[in-house]
Design a protein that fits this description.
The structure is a homodimer of 666-residue chains. Chain A is α+β, with helices and mostly antiparallel strands. Helices cover 55% and strands 11% of the residues of chain A. In chain A, the strands form 3 sheets. In chain A, strands 1, 2, 3, 4, 5, 6, 7, 8 and 9 form a 9-stranded mixed sheet that branches. In chain A, strands 10-11 form a two-stranded antiparallel sheet. In chain A, a hairpin with a 6-residue loop joins strand 12 and strand 13. In chain A, helix 9 (333-368) runs antiparallel to helix 10 (375-406), helix 9 packs across helix 21 and helix 16 packs antiparallel against helix 18. The first copy, chain A, is globular, with a radius of gyration of 26 Å. The two termini of chain A are 47 Å apart. At the A-B interface, strand 12, helix 9, helix 10, helix 11 and helix 12 of A face strand 12, helix 9, helix 10, helix 11 and helix 12 of B. Chains A, B: Its cofactor is FAD.
């Protein structure tokens, strides 16, 4: 593979790489970038919770006034009908203030999204215009104090009273409080409340009901109890709170009833007979929230890396041998190791995220247009959303942390943004689905081959599932397999072979996925033996839980590499392709290096090759070092949005001054 | 190895384990635990920077009034002369508020410590009483904006003016500002300023000078410029700021002159001829700060784990198969994997920290008593302080993060403390020495065998050093080697052997250390070839930088295991020994598992054995699960200090209520 020298990377290269990273919605990204007011959507970090919330509230009004909300809503109610665009424009807010971003996500993505996905046409017409223009501030009340991951077990009830035609909402215990609800503590007038629906003395499973919680002038309504969640590690501009309901009555028409409705006489009906299936269909319709969080994580990682790489290029420390000139810290291998494999991973995550957004857009656009979406495709979307969100959010946590450490004391000052980025994004790994639970969902999809009964995302649902299903055939393999076959030209894995050979890298990841999955199925199979006790079933499942998580990760690593390869294929600029190829090598090889224990343990690589991989990661760090700035520039974050003084010239100015001073003494 | 059933772990066991963890200063720990007012030393997290600083200022006065400061200072000036005790009592403050802890560390550890370590007896008598009773609030001005890690290159100057008998302090450029200086922004009246000392037209290297910065009524003095560092990611109760000096004059007597002094006529003299050696002797005298940060990291990790384990024992999620009862989250293997190996590591870190504090105490007590301290012993202390601090602070960052994720949304609420613990401790990995730089210091000590010229901690000092020294003999091996030899009874590494065999674990870590170090020396040796260019020298060093860091870590892992084994040996309670043995197994095996790629690559373990290690880590997690609460109880954090509602009964109460409600419906 040829090595582009630094002169090979021109502004045109950067532009071509940016186009690749921007993906299908590149024009929308440019539209958002052109908004110079966007840089001012930030809040003094020393603001207390109440004034931070107030500032975010005002900025949200501004965003609404400027039409930021319209992207994802139906054209019929004044939206743009651009579902992918709504996710992308949301992602761009990560460069402004993450509280503002999450606040907008609550209003337009979760609250508005619930009405859009679960409501009928009349409800759309009645509520969505107010959602978009913020005249109806709302919140999304799903999670309960006692039930975060296991949403199907929520304990809040809505009981239909046929005598009055009303639903009566109740919070039976403290565990059943709706908790961490963004918008609840201060702004929301209405909540989309997820309840167990009862009518005619029967339970019909989880449904969502619109419940007014505050009057137009902000007074909490009778029967509604709101407790502030108070100060949080981050996202303090979002007013999270706890909602309880005590005999609160709303008209029957407030039930979001696309998937299940109650007639005036209390008769329940639904187009989906199985309660379980209905539940997962509803959850599946809400997948956009998870995709949005994933995008935000990628955006935050890109911003942190932009700051850390720029500082690493300006900062110098320790004089070079035989010289008075100090060495630029990014020239140290240890510093490159801290930043560059993570940067390659952000590229990989962005490409995977772009594919996820496209998939979401295509599936949901088809459905909104009344078209038919193959159930398998819907399940794939859900699985990919779950898995991508887990990878991107964990990546954001790890890489922003690495960036903070790489910037030392400067990284700890709030003016340089890294600390707040870390704190604000920290909750991403556990909200919109706890990552560990999400990986189990992915693994289950792989085991079941996206079978019809797929969907119950709890861990023990998996046990039952495994007990019920035929496990002899593993799911159809992913596209990685096809890629592996397409790329496979030479026999893989010989020591003399180039570790930068893409087909070898792909084959290695594909092998790991296949082997891990096969082993998992073998370990879980005894759980379906006849007469096995529930305790033993649990023990089998639990003993293999780390294997299950590994299987999910192996699968996802493959999907991500696949997306990276496709993005390179789609790029037509030769120097951009060459640069992206190296970044992809660094991504793939550092991934393999990280898990070299597994590859060695399973005879997939030799000791010699394992050492060669480490050497090659070091070599790629050195090769990409001259292009580090180009690589972060290609994220296309407008200069005015970056904000951190260490990334915008302060360090360089100081270095220049110190050098001039030294010269004046000499 | 016998498995203690849960009934084997009695309150007496917990007490015995606590005694082992408490170490030599257990009585002092109990003395601090008995202070019930200690629980109230915390600040509302929604407090703005200024009021947080004010609150911390008041709490510090209270600590001073109660004699918290006296431990480490000489008896001659009213202290207790208990150096180890000063570190231990500092560590205990981690359970209160970390801003308060760091603020106390600035005043008594850094500012007071500089006067104590670098000043003469007259200076002790003059300043230390005011340091202890807070009538002289000070700060420690070493780090500059442009020089964090490379302290030897500070640019601030102190020029002796023989005409007036004064030292003139100057900040020549913005890079030379003293930065991140705790106490500078608000409270400090005096600064211990690290400067390049000039007299008679010559530079004499780095020295410390006491410079008044504010008047008694808090006005900034003429020629002193103070800029607030503003809001930070954490530790916002500490008033960090930037100090610049413009022709500030102080009497000659303000030079802290134990290691170098200027006579009235400007003649410079020092008991240490080499400037380099003098500098590192001074730095070495200040090692207590690093030891203290390390202790604080261990305390913060222990507190986070106490919270997460208690919540994990109360929290239930997802019904068990064939049951309505939900499963306690700590019963899931994935949850155990998140928390228990980290808990074992905190045990290991505490034992290593205890040994470090003893070593510090013994070395410095001997020296303060006028006794002779072997230079090699001093170097070992510095190396161990650097390495232990790197390990403990990275561990704190990782494990508090894991605890936050394990507590989900609850972990994100400030009332549950984990977010603030993370944010407050984050800077520990880069202050008091950047961890990556510290590991290089450790590695260099290993290569040079603590040779006389040891000490220059910059990375390129290493290059020069390597070029100058004979590298054919690696340093004497650590005590791990002796332990390995003592324990070595059977041939190591056979697959049928018990992976819980301590001698095998020790041998494995010892082998890795030896092999890594030997390889490093081979890689660096060409740097001392005659006629080699500086560029090539740097390239050789830089290309091996990851190897260098690995060598340091390998060495330190051995020291830590060694400390753990010694702590078990010293424990006389049989059930405590058995429990500690399992925790040590989990520590050692999860460490080996984490680096199994290396052990496989180098033929130290077979693939079969590698898989057996993973299985054994899982088994140990299941075996230790019933004792998780006992293990965190043994940290001995008083109930009133824990503070987090999720750890002090709130979740259990909710579970009980929900269960009673379900029963009332049935």
């Amino acid at each position: 593979m040829s090595t582009p020298s630094s002169t090979d990377v021109t502004p045109a290269t950067v532009a071509a790489v940016q186009l690749a990273l921007d993906g299908r919605w590149h024009a929308l990204r440019d539209e958002v970038r052109a908004r110079d007011d966007f840089a001012h959507l930030r809040v003094d970090p020393d603001t207390g919770v109440e004034s931070y919330r107030a500032a975010v509230g005002e900025m949200l009004v501004r965003l609404a006034d400027e039409g930021h909300a319209v992207h994802g809503f139906p054209v019929a109610v004044g939206g743009r009908g651009d579902i992918g665009g709504s996710v992308v424009s949301f992602e761009m807010l990560a460069y402004a203030d993450l509280s503002l971003q999450v606040k907008s996500g609550v209003q337009w993505g979760l609250f508005g999204g619930a009405i859009q996905a679960l409501g009928n046409a009349e409800q759309h017409a009645r509520y969505l215009p107010g959602v978009m223009d913020l005249s109806l501030p709302g919140c999304f009340a799903m999670t309960e104090t006692g039930h975060g991951s296991d949403v199907q077990s929520v304990h809040t009830t809505a009981t239909y009273d046929a005598a009055t035609g009303e639903l009566v909402i109740d919070t039976p215990t403290e565990s059943a409080r709706k908790d961490y609800i963004g918008g609840a503590a201060r702004d929301a007038r209405m909540a989309a409340v997820f309840v167990q629906l009862y009518s005619g003395g029967e339970r019909h499973g989880v449904h969502a009901v619109l419940v007014p919680v505050r009057s137009d002038d902000g007074e909490v309504l009778p029967g509604v109890e709101i407790v502030d969640d108070g100060h949080k590690e981050g996202l303090n501009g979002v007013d999270n709170g706890r909602l309880s309901f005590h005999g609160v009555r709303v008209p029957r028409e407030n039930l979001l009833d696309r998937y299940g409705t109650v007639a005036e006489d209390g008769t329940y009906s639904s187009s989906i007979e199985s309660e379980n299936r209905r539940f997962f269909t509803m959850l599946g319709a809400l997948v956009r929230g998870r995709v949005s969080v994933s995008g935000s994580a990628v955006g935050a990682a890109a911003l942190a890396q932009t700051i850390a790489v720029r500082y690493g290029e300006a900062r110098r420390q320790f004089a070079a041998p035989g010289s008075d000139e100090e060495i630029t810290v990014l020239d140290y291998l240890a510093h490159q190791r801290k930043l560059l494999p993570g940067l390659a991973r952000t590229y990989a995550m962005r490409f995977a995220q772009n594919e996820l957004v496209e998939m979401l857009h295509d599936v949901q656009t088809t459905r909104e247009a009344g078209g038919d979406v193959d159930e398998k495709r819907q399940r794939e979307l859900e699985s990919r959303a779950a898995g991508t969100k887990a990878l991107t959010t964990w990546h954001a946590t790890a890489t922003i942390q690495a960036c903070r450490e790489a910037c030392g004391g400067q990284g700890y000052l709030s003016e340089n943004r890294l600390g707040q980025l870390r704190a604000d994004t920290d909750v991403f790994t556990t909200f919109e689905g706890d990552n560990t639970v999400l990986l189990q969902l992915v693994a289950k999809g792989l085991i079941s081959g996206y079978a019809d009964d797929f969907g119950h995302l709890d861990t023990l649902g998996t046990v039952r599932f495994v007990a019920d299903q035929v496990l002899d055939t593993v799911a159809e393999r992913t596209s990685l397999r096809q890629l592996a076959e397409r790329l496979r030209a030479v026999a893989p894995g010989r020591d003399e072979e180039d570790v930068r050979d893409r087909s070898w890298q792909v084959k290695l990841l594909d092998d790991r996925e296949e082997h891990t999955l096969d082993g998992l199925v073998r370990r879980l199979r005894p759980a379906r033996d006849k007469g096995i006790s529930p305790e033993r079933q649990f023990a089998i499942f639990n003993g293999a839980q780390d294997h299950l998580l590994r299987a999910a990760r192996s699968h996802l690593d493959g999907l991500v590499l696949d997306a990276f390869v496709r993005a390179i294929d789609a790029c037509t600029d030769p120097s951009a392709r060459a640069l992206l190829g190296k970044v992809c090598d660094l991504y793939a090889l550092s991934l393999i290096e990280e898990d070299k224990g597994w590859f060695l343990e399973h005879g997939r690589i030799s000791a010699t090759r394992s050492k060669a991989i480490t050497a090659e990661v070091n070599r790629l760090c050195l090769e990409l070092r001259p292009h580090a700035r180009a690589l972060v520039d290609a994220f296309g974050i407008p200069e005015a949005w970056i904000g951190a003084p260490i990334a915008t010239g302060a360090e360089q100015r100081r270095q220049d001054e110190a050098r001039a001073h030294a010269a004046s003494l000499a």
